[in-house]
Design goal:
By secondary structure, this protein is α/β, with parallel strands linked by helices. It has 2 domains: 2-210, NAD(P)-binding Rossmann-like Domain (Rossmann fold, 3-Layer(aba) Sandwich), CATH 3.40.50.720; 214-335, N-(1-d-carboxylethyl)-l-norvaline Dehydrogenase, domain 2 (Orthogonal Bundle), CATH 1.10.1040. Helices cover 43% and strands 18% of the residues. It is built from 11 helices and 12 strands. Strands 5-2-1-6-7-8-11-12 form an 8-stranded mixed β-sheet, sandwiched between helices. Helix 6 runs antiparallel to helix 7 (246-266) and helix 10 packs antiparallel against helix 11. It is globular, with a radius of gyration of 20 Å. It starts with a strand and ends with a helix.
Length: 339
C-alpha cells in the first residue's frame, strides 16, 4: 500500500508527518515545486502541543515531496508519469488522501486525479477530507467513475506555520465511509485496503474508524463548522477564544440551533448533544486558527459557500428559515471580495 497526501496545507502536513513517523511513509503532493523541494531537503517539522503545558515537542519526519503539477495534463497534452508510477509493477494499492479545500478542487487537479486512476489500472482510491458537502459527487463525476471515492471526517486540529512546518493543535478522531455511488468499486479488495489504512493511521496516533453512517457524520461536522468557521473569522479569534465572551456564546448558540434544525430536515440524526460537542471541539482545538479565519487574514477565497452556503441551499430545499446563515455568508463574502 502506498499513501499519497494531496495538498501541503495544515491537515496534509500533519497526516504526512505523523504517518511517516509511525512507519507508513507518505508522499506529499504540493501546489508549488518550491514546497516539494523544501520537504525533500528538510522533511516536515511537526510540533506537538503537550496537554497542560506550553511546551511543544518538535519532531522531524522524512517525507517525499512531489509537485502536483507533475500529475497534470495541461492544454490537452500528456505529461511524464510521476516518479512513483515509473516502473511500478508491484501491484501496490494507492491511497490518495485528498486534503485540499473545496475551493481548490479545480479542473486541473480533478483531471490529474482521473489520469492517475487510469495509470494505476484500478489500483487507486480517493479519500476525501473536505469540509462541507457536494464535493463527493463533484470528484466522482470528474474522475468518470474510474476511481472509488471514500469520505472521511476528522476533528483533528492543525495549523501550518511554514511550508514544511505544522503545529498539531488538537486531537480528533478520523471516520471513513463508503460513497454509495461506488457500487461494486467499493467492495473487495477495498474493504481490506480500508482496514490497512486504518492500521496505518492508528500507528500514526490517530483514532480511526470505519462508519456505516458517514453522511450523518458529514452533516454533524458541517454543523460544527457552520458555527466555528464563520464566527472565528468575523471576530478574528481562535477556536478556544470564541465562546469566552457571553455575546459571542449567545450568537454561537443561535447559529447552532438554526443550522441544526435545517440539517435534521436533510437527514442529521436526532438525539446527539451537538451543542455540548461544539463547545468540546472549541476546547480541544483551543489554539487552532480556523481555516476560514486563516483565509480571511491572508486575503484568500474562503469555504463559506461550501459550509454556510450549503446550509442555505438545504434551507431553500426544505423551506426552512436561515437568516443567520445568510448573514454570516454575506459578511464573510464582503470581507474577502478581491479588489
Amino acid at each position: 500500500m502506498k499513501i499519497h497526501i494531496i495538498g501541503g496545507g495544515s491537515i496534509g502536513l500533519l497526516l504526512a508527518s505523523r504517518m511517516s513517523l509511525g512507519g507508513s511513509p507518505a508522499t506529499v503532493w504540493t501546489r508549488t515545486p518550491e514546497q516539494a523541494d523544501l520537504i525533500n531537503r528538510e522533511g516536515i517539522r511537526l510540533r506537538e502541543v503537550n496537554e497542560g503545558s506550553e511546551q511543544k515537542d518538535e519532531l522531524v519526519a522524512r517525507v517525499e515531496g512531489e509537485w502536483i503539477g507533475g500529475l497534470a495534463v495541461q492544454n490537452g497534452r500528456g505529461c511524464e508519469s510521476p516518479r512513483f508510477l515509473q516502473n511500478d509493477d508491484s501491484g501496490c494499492f494507492h491511497w490518495l488522501l485528498l486534503t485540499v479545500k473545496q475551493t481548490q478542487l479545480e479542473d486541473e487537479l480533478l483531471h490529474a486525479l482521473r489520469l492517475l486512476g487510469e495509470r494505476v489500472g484500478g489500483r487507486a482510491a480517493i479519500l476525501c477530507m473536505q469540509n462541507g458537502i457536494g464535493h463527493l459527487h463533484k470528484i466522482a463525476d470528474a474522475t468518470n467513475g474510474a476511481i472509488p471515492v471514500f469520505a472521511a471526517v476528522t476533528a483533528a486540529g492543525a495549523r501550518r506555520i511554514g511550508l514544511n512546518e505544522v503545529l498539531h493543535t488538537g486531537k480528533g478522531e478520523i471516520w471513513i465511509g463508503d460513497f454509495p455511488e461506488n457500487g461494486e468499486k467499493g467492495t473487495n479488495p477495498w474493504k481490506y485496503q480500508q482496514k490497512m489504512l486504518l492500521d496505518a493511521l492508528g500507528k500514526a496516533g490517530f483514532s480511526s474508524f470505519l462508519s456505516n453512517e458517514i453522511h450523518n457524520r458529514i452533516y454533524y461536522k458541517l454543523l460544527i463548522n457552520s458555527v466555528i468557521n464563520p464566527l472565528t473569522a468575523l471576530f478574528d479569534v481562535s477556536n478556544g477564544e470564541l465562546p469566552r465572551h457571553p455575546r459571542r456564546l449567545e450568537l454561537m448558540r443561535r447559529l447552532h440551533e438554526e443550522s441544526r434544525l435545517i440539517l435534521m430536515e436533510a437527514g442529521l440524526k436526532p438525539g446527539q448533544n451537538t451543542w455540548e460537542e461544539l463547545l468540546l471541539v472549541c476546547s480541544r482545538t483551543s489554539e487552532n486558527v480556523s481555516s476560514m479565519l486563516s483565509d480571511v487574514r491572508n486575503g484568500k477565497e474562503t469555504e463559506i459557500q461550501s459550509i454556510n452556503g450549503a446550509i442555505i441551499s438545504l434551507a431553500n430545499q426544505y423551506e426552512k428559515p436561515a437568516p443567520l446563515n445568510r448573514a454570516v455568508t454575506d459578511l464573510i463574502a464582503a470581507m474577502t471580495i478581491m479588489p
